[in-house]
Amino acid sequence: MVKMEKRWTVKGKYIIITGATSGIGLATAKELVKRGANLGIIARNQVKANELATQLKNVSGGKTVVDVFLADMSSQESIRQVAKEILSKCPKIDILINNAGAMFDRRQESVDGMEMTWAVNHLGPFLLTTLLLERLKENGNARIITTASHGHKMVKKGIDFDDIHAKSLYSFPKMLFGGPTIRYGETKLANILFTTELAKRLEGTGVTAHCFDPGLVATNFNQNNGLLARLTMAGMKPFSRSPEKGAETLVWLADTDDISEDNGGYYADMKKILPSVPAQNLEAAKRLWEISQEQVG
């Protein structure tokens, strides 16, 4: 009798996810619990997170575990604290989903002195991933999935490492002509380069890294940047996907067996595609990793 090889599925697996209280993260969380996954939600707002946990347990009919962990993804101290809590509570992590993201139209700095879009979109997932990496490796078969964006293609020459704090992009007149948007693109490019270098470092461990483009999605993204930003997003809404459609590739990456032999890929619409030329720069990926290590101490 031929023994059937067990295929990958999220059923019964434990998944840590950031950015699950709204948008594609919320749509993803709902679909994952429907498929039998257990979730650990990292959120900033206690009330929202608790409401979501109750909602998800109802979706699964009480059959899945939904844990809540609180953290500010712009604060390195907060991320270190939540990682300790997760490692203390969770003996096994099968999948880590780095989905939280933001864009700031005016230059702000995190409590660690990092430009805020960079702190949330890149350094947050970089630090969280490295802190949880050994637990993922202990599993022997795990995945790390990061939400990137088509917006990385706005960055034509790659990340400006000489202006890593984006002071130029937020200075006059660049900030009036798309500087903050370019900065967002840099962070999404960083997500792809991070995935590339992470995959390289994970070879032979059983843990794989993947990232994806959800497409233009109608969510509450960019609503923190004033009236003009809200009007812009409202104008784009008729051309945008629903959060559920935007979440399809993320759910697929978490649940499919088709990528079990792949590592470091960039996906859109459930297909592996090539990102921009700067996103394929292996030297830039290595340099980004080294700079990120310095920035998180």
Automatic annotation (TrEMBL):
CDD domains: retinol-DH_like_SDR_c_like. InterPro entries: NAD(P)-bd_dom_sf, SDR_fam. It comes from the Bacteria. Gene3D superfamilies: NAD(P)-binding Rossmann-like Domain. One of its GO terms (molecular function) is oxidoreductase activity. SUPFAM superfamilies: NAD(P)-binding Rossmann-fold domains. Keywords: Oxidoreductase. Transmembrane segments: none annotated. This is Short-chain dehydrogenase. It comes from Heyndrickxia shackletonii.
